Amino acid sequence: MINEKNKHSWCVNAEHSMSANNDGSTKMCCMIKDSYNNFEKTNKYIIGETSIVENFNNPSSIKIREDLKSGIRNSACDACWQEEDGGRKSKRMRDNEKYLHAKKYQGKVFSGLVNLELNLGNNCNIKCRTCHPSISSQWMKEAYDLDHKGRISSYKKYAESMKKYHQHYDDESPFWSDLENNLQTIRQFDFYGGEPFLSKKMWEILKLCVDKDYSKNIELHFNTNGTTWPKNIDESFKHFKEVNLSFSIDGIGERFEYMRYLAKWDEVRNNMEKARTYMKTYGNMSLSWCITLSTINIFYLKEILDFYYANYAKDFGLYLNLVHGPKHFNISTLPEDVKEFVLNEINSIPENYESAKHQIPGIAGFIENGVSDIVNWNLFSHHIKKHDEYRKQNFSQTFPEYHKILNDKGLF
Questions:
Q1: What is the pLDDT of residues 130-155, one digit of tens each?
Q2: Total domains in the fold of the chain
Q3: How many CB atoms lie within 10 A of CB 142?
Q4: Residue 86: closest CA among 356, 338, 322
């Protein structure tokens, strides 16, 4: 348990969580930099091939767990350490607070696997700028045309090579029966995608939780792109202890549609209104915006927040997420000449934007502590221009103020 010796390292996710990636490989949580297979130099730890219990208790998970309990900052957790060293409250710190609060006020004592995070394959209906084919099936044809044609003989062969990013969540995967056998211990599901609402098997598992009366003890968390509102929501969610629905919003209007290509801003806003209505009808749902900050949209954070506070702050929480990889989208790698402009913008966010303002120092620290790399920045410019041409989009027209700064500095 947490104490004075280990309070800077102890993590509830090390003790009670497991994350399954899109390709079925596993790790401790979404922030861990590598899968257990890479730590162990094996291909053994795959859901549906090795049991959930074996994945959870593999040698690397035990080593990380013991290090964090002993006050050692294991390097596998560098993403959290980087955020904490920049003055930002990391996932480790946020989840610890939630767990300790739950123990203190509800008398809960957990053992073993309690929180299961599932990245439900790459089935998705949009292709976000900071995403890639292993997470979005919509990205596959574009990635093949721009990066693999000529090296791989056909798109069919390329698609075949990408099967690993969904097959462990397919209907016939043994993982689902293994999960059924572990449902009694689960107290929280975190669902990601692709787009989690598109997963048929996920909805079947939730129905099973309801039918077996497990749902009353289970909290659900979803990150959704907001493009769909399945009928299953009304049938299922009301039976769970708590549901947190987080909408991924990286811009507004035209900039949103650039960032989350194929999504329509008006449709997503309509689904957020449906969510607001559901929340007011049932007492077990909380809503939030998750704004993922990258080298594409960081200059427009204040604009996004102005819209959020004018329209959504009353009913939706707010979380400012950071891209850690790929590096050319990581805001800590911004060129030094650009950091000054970006920091001026984010530091101008009004004091009365309280839920954002307390997160800003950590974001500023994350940027300031980062190391600029012109080679990496050239990759950013190349990536933007290449995909603009393919998609018939235009970064300079969609982000004109930011583009002018970059262009004036000879960086775009």
A1: 999 999 999 999 999 999 998 999 99
A2: 1
A3: 18
A4: 322
Asked if residue 33 belongs to a domain, the reply is no
Asked, for residue 258, whether it belongs to a domain, the answer is yes
Sequence-ordered alpha helix ranges (H) in 282-373: 301-311, 336-347, 354-357, 360-368
What's 25's DSSP letter? Answer: B
Q: What is the CATH number of the domain that holds 115?
A: 3.20.20
Residue 139 lies in a domain: no
Q: Check residue 227 and give its pLDDT.
A: 98
Helix (H) or strand (E) holding 381: helix 374-391
Among positive and negative, which fits the CA dihedral 319, 266, 139, 49?
positive
**Interval 86-115: pLDDT, tens:** 898 999 999 899 877 665 545 566 778 999
First to last CA, the chain: 50
CA distances, 99 to each of 2, 12, 74, 243 (Å): 11, 7, 21, 16
The pTM (predicted TM-score) of the whole model is 0.91
Max Cα-Cα span within the chain: 62
- Contact of 144 with 152, CB cutoff 8 Å: yes
Burial tier of 148 (Cβ tally within 10 Å: 0-12, 13-18, 19+): middle
CB 322 within 8 A of CB 363: yes
Give the 3-state secondary structure of residue 159.
Answer: helix
Distance between CA atoms of 212 and 235, rounded to whole angstroms?
A: 15
